[in-house]
Each structure stands twice: as C-alpha cells, then as structure tokens.
Amino acid sequence: MIPRAILTAAEMKAAEDATMASGVSVDQLMERAGRAAADIAWRMAGKAHVLVLCGPGNNGGDGYVVARLLAERGCEVQVAALADPATDAARNARAQWPGPVDAIGDARPAPMVVDALFGTGLARPLGADLSAALCDLVRKARHSLAVDLPSGIETDSGALLSPVPFFDATIALGSLKPAHLLQPAAGFMGMTLVGEIGIAAESALLEIGRPTLVPPLPSAHKYSRGYVLVAGGAMAGAASLAADAAIRAGAGYVALAGPEHGEGPLALVQRLAVDPRTLADLLADERVDVAVAGPGLGLNDKAEARLESVLAAGKRLVLDADALTLIAKRGAETLAGLDAPPILTPHEGEFARLFGDISGNKVERAREAARRSGSVIIYKGNDSVVASPDGRAAIAPPAPSWLATAGTGDVLTGIAAARYAATGDPFEAACEAVWLHGAAARMAGPFLIADDLIEALPRALAACL
Ligand SMILES: NC(=O)C1=CN([C@@H]2O[C@H](COP(=O)(O)OP(=O)(O)OC[C@H]3O[C@@H](n4cnc5c(N)ncnc54)[C@H](OP(=O)(O)O)[C@@H]3O)[C@@H](O)[C@H]2O)[C@@H](O)CC1
Ligand SMILES: Nc1ncnc2c1ncn2[C@@H]1O[C@H](COP(=O)(O)OP(=O)(O)O)[C@@H](O)[C@H]1O
Ligand SMILES: [K+]
Fold first, then answer.
1. What ipTM, to 2 d.p.?
2. Which InterPro entries match (predicted)?
C-alpha cells in the first residue's frame, strides 16, 4: 500500500503555490475543494436542509462553493458568515453564491451543518461566542461535516485552540495534515476522507498504512526468517509476551534467555541465562539478527549488567520499558554510536525520562529524539509517531483505545523485533509493527488483553499478504 503524505500548513501552502505556478488558479482549486466537500455532504445528507458556516479566509471560500453546489442539487441552504471575505478567491466564491448571507448570530440549527469557518489559516482561538455557537449548531444537527479541519484546531500540532464539537466527518483537502492524525484533534474529526484537488502532495511525513508482506521463499529456512533473542529478567511474563509476539509475527527462531524459564508456546526456545556472561555468549551467536531488552528486565544491578551485554553485542536492537529507564540515567545520546540504529518504543512517561527537555508537537519531539539518540523512535499512544534519525517520520491512524492495558507494549516490541529481523530497516520495521499491532487490536476487539493480541497476529499478518 502506498502511504499517504501528511503536509504541514506551510507545506500545503507551498504545494498550492507550486500548483498555481503550473497554471491552475486559486479559484479553480477552491472550486475543486468545494465540489469535493459538497459531494460528501450530499452523500451524507441528501436533500436535507443545510447550514453552511463561512469564515473570512479561503476555508470560508470553500464554504460558498459548497453552498452553491448543494443549492444547485435542490437543497435548501442557509449561509451564515463570520465576516466579509478577506481574500480575492473567497470574494469570487461568495459572488457566485446567489442567495443571502446571514450573520453567524442568525444561523438556525439545520439537519446538516458544514463548518467552513477556518482551516489551515487558523492562527488563534475562536472567540468564546463563536466556538459556543459552532458547538451548539453541530450538536443540534443530524449530520456534520468539517471542511479541511474542524474550526478551532491547530493544523500542525493537533492542539485544540478553542472548544471543538465532535464531527461526523472531515474532508481533508488535497492532503492529510498532522492534526488529522494527532490527538486530541483526531478524536473530533469523525470519519476522515481526503478530497483530491489536483495538488502534488509530497512530504517526509507519512501516514502509516498497511504493509505489504511476502510469504517465505521456497529456499527459506528458520534462520533466514530471522533469529530474535529476548533478554529476560526480573519479570518473566513481560519478556514472554515479547518473545511470543516475535514468533507469532513471523520470526523463524525466537529464544527467550532469562534467569528462569518463562511461559510461551512450545516453539519458543527457552534458554537459562542466570548471569550476564551466559547472555553475552548466547548473543555472540552470529545467527542472532535482533536482540530485545526491556520488557520484564528489572532496574537493579543485574538488569544493568544484562542490558550492558545486549548493548555490547553488536546486534540490531529493540529497547523498551526498563531498558529505556536504565538508558535514561546515562543519556539517550549514548545510543548514537551503536552499529545499527536501535528501535526504542517509549510511552509518554518513558519519553519524558529519556528526552524530557524536547519541546514542540509530537512529530517534532519524535524527530528530535531520533536525531539525538541515533535511534528509530516509536513514540507510543493513541497517535503513535515513528521517527528515524534520517528525518523520515510517520503517524499511525488512531489505534483502538482497548490497547490501554498492561502488556500490549511488550507485544509491540516483539512484533518490531520480528519485522526488524525480516527487513533490516528499523524505520520500515517500526511502521509495520505499529500497523500490525493496531490491526491485531481491532481483530481482538473490546476488552482485549495482551495475550489476545498475540492470538490475533496471524490474521493481521495474513491481511498484508
Ligand atoms: N491549500 C490548498 O491547496 C487549498 C486550500 N483551500 C482552503 O483554504 C484554507 C486555508 O485558507 P486561508 O489560508 O485563507 O485560511 P483560513 O483557514 O480560511 O483562515 C484564515 C482567515 O481567518 C482569519 N482568522 C484566523 N484565526 C482567526 C480567529 N481565531 N478568529 C477570527 N479570524 C481568524 C485570518 O485573519 P488574520 O489572522 O489574517 O487576521 C484569515 O482571514 C484551507 O484550509 C482550505 O479550506 C482551498 O480553498 C483551495 C486549495
Ligand atoms: N488509549 C490508547 N489508544 C490507543 N493505543 C493505546 C492507548 N493506550 C495505549 N496504547 C497502545 O498500547 C501500547 C501500550 O504500551 P505500554 O504503555 O508500553 O504498555 P506495557 O508496558 O504495559 O506493555 C502501546 O503500543 C500504545 O501505543
Ligand atoms: K473548517
């Protein structure tokens, strides 16, 4: 699957300028944008009475186009505007709307509401009266559609600048923007669709899409499919979850090396490694492709020594949980010299421990963390962001919140290890793992526990063949 690009407000503006330089006028772009939005509104509500709220900028201009096209289809349309249009394109669009334009205060609740107040140009919070009116009108509607973005959202960060209602659908014009995937904004969009308006959308920031996997070659053997070694520690269950997930995610050989035997399928190779030297010996096996440390590792001196063996092994690494807490003490930048970029999988708390002083939105923080640590970062959450030290970054579509349960992160770590062993590319592996994890969660369903994710993994993987 070709991943969709995500453009910041500035990148969108540049893409729009490039399109115009090739001979397309802003009025034509606005007509396409309005037509795409009107088509969605029509599919949602048919001939229902429509209220279109228009702002002063080009988002409002799109709104006037929507109003005209829906009226042409026979809808009864009320247009309510915040102010007169402030751009030429919006003025032209308004001039082509044959009906009256009311003040926002005169907007009457309608079964279908189209929000064309503000899009990527929103620079500050909506006034309290305006956001209250927007929330009230959307709440009273049966269907609601936001044009480009719900008004009140900051495009690049996904922050809510002022209160925003829940929309049934949002049409992203030309391309996804970060706010379509980042929380809290993404939670207010309803179904998000991208409206094609003829802009070439290219970016180093992508949406994580379904990976394409290939079955093992006829010549495959267990080691060619990837050997993952999971270093266990104080808590056998967590390491077992990671190891079990790695084997279910397609690694050909998975060994769990801990101070005691863990749980897991019979196919999992259990190796007793009571002291760090034994662990180092196991890691010295040249067939080991990827080593995992963190889940259930512990935080005491023994855990430190085990982590040391893993870091010194010269292998590709996936580091999570306790390993991240231990690394935070010595500084994440100490990872920058490893032979291959490791994958780090911090949740919000671990990220703060590792990179507490980084500011900016979630994508910027993930990118800076990747650069500093020379690592691929999976910055977890409902809007997981993956960033690579080479500047590539990706945002996952919202994952089921049922994932908020103990052990699901250990499963992600195991999947990432299996994919890193298979692909050799930590960024690709991280993105694939995040997608598979979310898909397995959707298949496992409500009230899932971490073990259910592992059980669902083969079905999630099969969907990618
Ligand atoms: N990119 C593309 O290819 C295409 C983009 N298109 C569309 O254009 C949209 C972007 O348009 P845009 O740049 O004109 O910005 P927009 O969101 O309408 O708002 C700016 C206006 O609002 C004002 N303003 C801001 N905050 C405010 C506040 N809190 N309260 C009150 N006022 C506030 C601000 O005023 P100022 O800050 O200058 O005082 C300015 O007047 C984009 O989302 C998409 O829908 C399509 O038509 C065609 C293809
Ligand atoms: N509310 C949520 N919505 C979607 N995904 C979530 C949510 N909460 C947690 N997750 C996902 O579940 C996993 C939890 O990982 P983590 O916090 O490390 O748990 P643990 O350490 O118990 O395994 C991560 O992949 C995270 O992205
Ligand atoms: K809008």
1. 0.95
2. CARKD, Nnr, Ribokinase-like, YjeF_N_dom, YjeF_N_dom_sf
